[in-house]
Amino acid sequence: MSKIHPTAIIGEDVRIEESVEIGAYSILVGDVSIGKGTKIGNRVSIKGKVKIGQDCKIYDGVVIGEEPQHLRYAGEESEVIIGNRVIIREYATIHRGTSIGIMKTIIEDDVMLMAYSHVAHDCIVRRGVIMANCATLGGHVEVGEYAFIGGLSAVHQWARVGAYAMVGGLSGVSLDIPPYTRASGQHALLYGVNTVGLERRGFKKEVIKAIKRAYRILFRSGMLKKEAIEVILKELGEYEEIRHLVEFIKTSKRGVARDAGGRS
């Protein structure tokens, strides 16, 4: 049985599954569905077309499904889709998609959005991502699984942050950050491989060694990108992670962040 505070406002079209909790003065209106076991705090606003999965925790003051901050948005019925076991801390904001993008903003399972973080229209935030306090994604950003974005960092529209990458706090990301790497700075540069993060996620030593070798070839050998990719695939193409890294580099539209020249 769900527990809904008497001051909460729940629209007629809202669908609520079992064991949901909704706190005081929260407002849920529109084509909204809330999965089993999800807990919604006080003064939360969920509006428009929004689907939230099971066992999520949504804290006080969160806004989900508000109109996107885009001058060309014309009221189209876009949506927000949130997976299971997602944690959204105080005053975070998630806006729905636009017709300029994919018409939806997607947050996959096991994501954590810390206080005051922002996910703009048409973003895709993959499984296990952590965004620290006040981290911000511009529109159309994609963040790969288990990536970490530090506090007070901002990712430019259309940029990508690869899987298992780590973006340090106070960073400005205007170019793509490849998978498995570390990046930071006002105009974010790469500082080698995210070794600690990969170890924590259970990557084998031989895989980490291969990723480091690929990183050095790509960013520190002086080779042209095409030549570097050929060498990497010839030497290390047996590893799925290396093929994923190469595909990310090859499909970059904004360009890839440069190496800062430090040691990995």
Task: Describe the protein's architecture and organization.
It contains four helices and 28 strands. Helix 2 runs antiparallel to helix 3 (225-236). It has helices at residues 195-200, 205-220, 225-236, 240-250; strands at 3-4, 9-10, 15-16, 21-22, 27-29, 32-34, 39-40, 45-47, 49-52, 57-58, 63-66, 79-82, 87-88, 93-95, 104-107, 112-113, 118-119, 124-125, 130-131, 136-137, 142-143, 148-149, 154-155, 160-161, 166-167, 172-173, 181-184, 189-193. A hairpin with a 4-residue loop joins strand 27 (181-184) and strand 28. The chain folds into two domains: 3-143, 3 Solenoid (UDP N-Acetylglucosamine Acyltransferase, domain 1); 204-250, no CATH class. It is α/β, with parallel strands linked by helices and 264 residues long. The chain has an eleven-stranded mixed beta sheet with strand order 1-4-7-10-13-16-19-22-25-27-28.
The percent range for helix content is: 10-25%
Please state the structural category.
Answer: alpha/beta
CATH class of the largest domain, anyone?
Mainly Beta
In whole angstroms, the N-to-C terminal distance is: 53 Å
Number of domains: 2
Total count of strands: 28
Radius of gyration from CA coordinates? 20 Å
Strand order of the largest sheet: 1-4-7-10-13-16-19-22-25-27-28
Number of helices: 4
CATH fold-level name of the largest domain:
UDP N-Acetylglucosamine Acyltransferase, domain 1
What is the second-level CATH architecture of the largest domain? 3 Solenoid
**CATH homolog superfamily of the largest domain:** Hexapeptide repeat proteins
